[in-house]
UniProtKB/TrEMBL annotation:
Alphabetized Pfam families for the sequence: GMC_oxred_C, GMC_oxred_N
Family: Belongs to the GMC oxidoreductase family.
Glucose-methanol-choline oxidoreductase N-terminal domain location: 27-41
Protein name: Glucose-methanol-choline oxidoreductase N-terminal domain-containing protein
PANTHER family xref list: DEHYDROGENASE XPTC-RELATED, GLUCOSE-METHANOL-CHOLINE GMC OXIDOREDUCTASE
SUPFAM superfamilies named among the record's database cross-references: FAD-linked reductases, C-terminal domain, FAD/NAD(P)-binding domain
Organism of provenance: Porites evermanni
Length: 361
């Protein structure tokens, strides 16, 4: 088992061979892409891009599952400039209230909240997570993944202040795919989120389900800021919110909200499941049908998760590290890889053994 990499110092490609195993951790887009251009993936796709098939697996690059994010934007009063250091929305102590409105930039996400909107999830899971952000110019980074003219990317030109609560649907029914376009790893793959909501104003069953969740959340937020629950909000916060900018209080009916929403979906930047367990990897993260190759990133998630992915990836990595230590403990001081001179056997090989070696006692 081995890898080819581009040595940026020489501009030449090099081959590295692992004595034991290779672990892929390229993320939900690049891991399936790398597998596909290495000959592991759907037969039709590999035929199309003229890659010799090593292991057929129709699931590699499929099942792309991301959280969907929709903005709820509020117009704020000047009181935002003079917030006390510590107060929560319900009047209780919160340490960084002021920072919530003063900090800017991609790392200024302050609060992640779980909403109790429950349209699909029966038990402890929540349908929606809310990100409370300082202003509406945040989330510009989604441009890298999704271009939609409708997301609010700037603060208002009249100098007034806005605050955004991103509504994150954590279980959208949509599934997409990642597909290599050519045999070269340097040509980006085609990403398709499978979001069909823009097509000729089509209202698909999947869109209906996502829209129902988002509408419930918008209506709940309206109750809190402008409706029955407003009296429960602390005085400080009541003085803060002037108006609803997006979707706008004039949009009331399901139809009006759905039309608005259609232009607003962006990725919440949590793509996963494109080499999912158990279709592509087993419970020990071993790539099915390939010897000595594992995956440790969000592509291997069996399902999306209820929250942001990084903690789960850390847990997955720690677990894999424990498994590998256990398996290779005796050889830990050996060099784990070696540069090859000249061409040897294939870098990636189908697993012909019937090994049930699972790293556990
Ligand atoms: C702006 C932004 C903010 C986010 N905020 C949060 C947050 O607050 N909390 C949270 O939990 N999650 C957050 N996420 C999501 C989180 O970052 C991802 O879910 C997570 O990083 C995915 O981890 P991964 O290991 O699967 O892949 P990645 O972290 O994407 O790691 C893959 C790595 O592989 C490298 N790579 C890919 N292909 C190759 C190749 N061919 N050769 C060599 N290297 C390669 C990439 O450069 C990258 O370093 C955020 C994401 C973004 C974009």
């Amino acid at each position: 088992m081995g890898v080819v990499y581009l040595d940026s110092t020489t501009g030449k490609t090099q081959e590295l061979r692992a004595r034991k195993e290779v672990i892929l951790a390229g993320g939900a887009f690049d891991t399936p892409h790398l597998l596909q251009v290495s000959g592991v993936g759907p037969r039709d796709l590999l035929d199309k891009i003229k890659i010799p098939l090593v292991v057929e697996n129709p699931h590699v690059g499929e099942h792309l599952w991301d959280h969907i994010s929709v903005p709820y934007v509020l117009k704020l009063s000047d009181a935002a400039d003079n917030l006390p250091e510590s107060v929560n929305i319900d009047g209780t102590e919160h340490k960084n209230t002021a920072a919530l409105f003063y900090i800017n930039g991609p790392f200024s996400w302050i609060l992640h909240l779980r909403s109790n909107v429950k349209e699909r999830q029966p038990q402890d899971m929540t349908d929606v997570q809310l990100y409370v952000m300082g202003n509406s110019s945040l989330f510009d980074e989604t441009e890298a993944l999704c271009t939609t003219s409708s997301k609010r990317g700037t603060d208002p030109s009249d100098g007034s202040r806005e605050g955004t609560i991103r509504i994150i649907d954590q279980w959208p029914e949509y599934r997409g795919s990642v597909k290599a376009q050519t045999s070269s790893i340097f040509n980006k793959p085609v990403l398709d989120y499978g979001w069909d909501y823009k097509l000729d104003n089509k209202v698909s069953p999947k869109f209906k389900k996502v829209a129902k969740v988002v509408r419930s959340q918008i209506r709940l937020l309206r109750e809190i800021f402008f409706g029955e629950k407003a009296s429960e909000v602390s005085e400080t916060f009541r003085g803060l919110v002037l108006d609803e900018v997006e979707p706008g209080l004039d949009k009331v009916t399901d139809e009006e909200l759905d039309v608005w929403m259609r232009g607003m979906f962006v990725s919440a930047l949590h793509p996963a499941c494109t080499c999912k367990m158990p279709d592509c990897v087993d419970e020990f993260l071993r790539v099915k049908g390939v010897s000595n190759l594992r995956i440790c990133d969000t592509s291997a998630f069996a399902t999306q998760i209820d929250g942001n992915p990084v903690a789960t990836i850390f847990a997955m990595s720690e677990k894999l590290a424990d498994m590998l230590k256990k398996k290779y403990l005796d050889d830990l001081d050996e060099k784990s890889c070696t540069k090859t001179k000249g061409k040897k056997s294939n870098l990636i090989e189908a697993d012909s053994s019937d090994s049930n070696d699972n790293c556990f006692d």
